[in-house]
Amino acid sequence: MNEGISNGTDKKYTVITGASSGIGYEAAKAFAERGKNLIVAARRTEKLETLKREISEQHPTPDVIIRTVDLPVLRNVYQFYSSLKDFQLETWVNNAGFGNYDSVAQQDLEKIDTMLRLNVEALTILSSLFVRDYKDVPGTQLINLSSCGGYTIVPTAATYCATKFYVSTFTEGLAWELIESGAKMRAKVLAPAATQTKFGKKANNVDTYDYDKAFGTYHTSQQMAEFLMKLYDSDSTLGIVDRETFQFELRLPLFPYANSSTHNQQPNK
Q: In the 3-class helix/strand/coil scheme, how is the chain assigned residue by residue?
């Protein structure tokens, strides 16, 4: 377990990646409203400074630590986690990620390489390090951002959906693993549907993106942050938005879990 203590105190911190905009930005404000100390991470320092200023104006008590990091670069992932060794962590939200709309035959492989590194590799490493250090600490939570596209294959988004299927199955599997091992930590998945963020511009490689024209129905980042907090407060593993009705539901894991199968690999005696 990480026994680090920040600045000689016993403060506990919530870490949020991808906090410079969208759901991560609003989630940081939602946690701050509850008095939670924050470590907010993203590539854009100026956006994180704006977030810190907004939080300080509305909620002066919580401590807000900024970490500027480009997570698709593997060495940065390890350095980022290592930089937090002197902080006692309580909750970790892996929100950083982006999407891509294009056919597999036409997709930009340089962009896809970066997406795979961020959506899959960075999330897996950060989750694993956090679980390794904190799984037996009461009250700790890992929340990974997936998508309803992590449970449904969306046309022209096969590769993006595959990354989010990975997030969903990895986190649901981890949730079962933690429960069955008697660990104190809980792992959870948040699966949004269309949400008005910078996602649309990045996924479509455009400078402007009209969510009203593209979807008609969607949630705001603030609404999704509210859903995230409902998941945080619950005993559920999954918080998912129905892609057709846009209703938010707290649910048990959706993927089959073969814990009682006679065909599982048997442990060494």
A: CCCCCHHHCCCEEEEEECCCCHHHHHHHHHHHHCCCEEEEEECCHHHHHHHHHHHHHHCCCCCEEEEECCCCCHHHHHHHHHCCCCCEEEEEEECCCCCCCCCCCCCCHHHHHHHHHHHHHHHHHHHHHHHHHHCCCCCCEEEEECCHHHCCCCCCCHHHHHHHHHHHHHHHHHHHHHHHHCCCCEEEEEECCCEECCHHHHHHCCCCCCHHHHCCCCEEHHHHHHHHHHHHHCCCCEEEECCCCCCEEEECCCCCCCCCCCCCCCCCC
